[in-house]
Write the structure tokens for this entry.
Amino acid sequence: MGDIVPEARRGRFFALRTQLASVASFSALIAAGLILQLFHTVGYTYWGFVAIFALACIARLQSAYHLSQMYDPPGHVASLESPWHIDLWRSIRTTDLVPFSVFFACMQFAVGIASPFFVVYMLRDLKFSYVEFMINSATSVLLQFLTLNRWGRLSDLFGNRLILTTTGAIIPIMPTLWIWSTNYYYLLGVQCVSGLIWAGFSLSASNFVFDLTPPQRRTTLMAAHNVFAALAVFLGAVIGGYLGSHLPNEVTLFGTHFEWLSALYAVFVISGLTRLVVAVAFLPRLREVRSVRRMSMTGLIFRVTRFAPVSDLIFEIVGTLRRGRNDDSS
């Protein structure tokens, strides 16, 4: 996709693709939550999980079928490089991708410390029903869908570095927001902010990899980048699981006794502090590699938060209809 999508429209294209994936994720969350709640109500929770796992299996098989039907145009086949070849790693080391991959892997490690355990916190500690959990999770996905198009346009106009530094500066705060209140509507608000920020960070991080990799070696370099990120997520989740199982949920400091609802609060704080260290260490070193317009962080935040989803949708539909009429007339 990096070869056939113009650089100037890459942000909008991948934003649209991710929006479609968000619609699918949102629909799946709604359906799975309702199915689980229905089976749980009649006392067959186990079979509710069997049902949604079976549906997921069918969906993946359907996806694999459509993937097998895709046409791969000739002339775009690159030679396969062994991941253990020393020349490959020497060449990777000299690219601009290395410092970004290190930053991304470290951030994924910090995020992985807490990210698997928000589900545990909501279901075990807050006693959310499956419907409440479904709505909470779907809220984040919905906000990503509503803002991805805006993020994509901003990425094309102002580059990916600005979005990375802006969202990367806010990401350390996100896990700590979960410890201030257990109010359901407050946590829905936290998920709204989370969906907004992660939509920008994920999209700009993916596009930044395209900017940093030459087309002829993009597949190999992106594979190495994703291997590092996946390993970092694994290590972060292992450490987070250990901390969540061994840290106490009460402590006495200077004669004052503190008791938390869950030991996972400490995991969230540790994840936030680790994210902060990564952001301070790496974000100032990121450099934009494309020629883009200048924009401040406050200006970017204003442009993102001042959005009207319905208006954006209307303009998208009108624009599509106009392009279709122009194509027909030509």
The beta strands are 250-253, 256-259. Residues 308-318 have pLDDT under 50 and may be disordered. The CA atoms of residues 105 and 229 lie 4 Å apart. The longest strand covers residues 250-253.
